[in-house]
Amino acid sequence: MRVIAGTSRGCKLLPVPFPRVRPTSDIVREAIFDILESLGAVKGAWVVDLFAGTGAIGIEALSRGARRVSFVEKDPRIAGLVKANLRATKLDMLEHDIVVADAISWCRAAAKLEIVICDPPYSFSGWEELLEVVDADLVVMESSSSPVQPSRWEFFKTKRYGSTLVTMARPVKKEM
């Protein structure tokens, strides 16, 4: 695994010592960020890497010019891997925070967010609850099958990459 683009392009990320962590593949990360950059959504944005795992998503965002990244990971051992990967890519000096917390609980307490990228385990069954509590301008979801679409979200882009389904959502605009 490596950083695809930006200031840390080509830097290798540390291998995952935890068998239950499924890092986002380079191909999927590149596709996600190509879409986000075509929307002008990464540079200068606050990106949240929910279910951070290795931190590859958030690290890619920092490398591509995100203003700030919050890495949210509930397992403190895995959160340590995020810190090590930030050092390995020399992005540890940029604005970031590593939060050891449950993603849904953290989103419930968070202020308005800009971009939230969610890469939970494929067995995750809390999509409905997560999408009810997250307050963001844009949500990117990685899953094995399509999450249930709550009425307050518009799923505007869906693309499959092997076993990974990437779904992009934005809040439904309220009509006046």
Strand and helix layout:
Elements: H1 26-38, E1 46-50, H2 56-63, E2 68-73, H3 76-88, E3 96-100, H4 103-109, E4 113-118, H5 127-133, E5 136-143, E6 153-161, E7 164-171
Parallel strand pairs: 1-2, 1-4, 2-3, 4-5
Antiparallel strand pairs: 5-7, 6-7
Please characterize this protein's 3D structure.
The mean pLDDT is 92. The longest helix is centred in the first third of the chain and has 13 residues. The protein has 176 residues and is an alpha/beta fold. The N and C termini lie far apart (47 Å). Strand 6 and strand 7 form a beta hairpin. It has a single domain, classed as 3-Layer(aba) Sandwich (Rossmann fold), CATH 3.40.50. A 7-stranded mixed β-sheet has the order 3-2-1-4-5-7-6, with helices on one face.
What keywords describe this structure?
single chain, 176 residues, alpha/beta, Rossmann fold, seven-stranded mixed beta sheet, 5 helices
**How would a crystallographer describe the biggest sheet?**
7 strands, mixed
Low-confidence stretches: none
Rg calc: 15 Å
Fold-level CATH name: Rossmann fold
